[in-house]
Description:
Layout: H1 18-25, H2 29-45, H3 50-55, H4 57-74
Helix pairs in contact: 2-4
Amino acid sequence: MNLGLHVSFQYKLDKKTIPQLYNLTNVNYAGTLNRISRDVILKVGGQFNATNYWTDRKQIGDFMKIQLNNELKKTFAM
């Protein structure tokens, strides 16, 4: 059984860390942040079955948000 997942989120760039972000991604920061975000969401999402998405939706969303925030911080986004 396939499960479709629609996710929406926003990130902010810290003005103080823009030089580090540029060193990491050059001008393609949006593509890099999208790729990292997609990877985290797929990794976390794969840890749960379809029933969990009905019974534990908030907990899964909260866990996904924490993991996503942790990875985005490594790329100078929040």
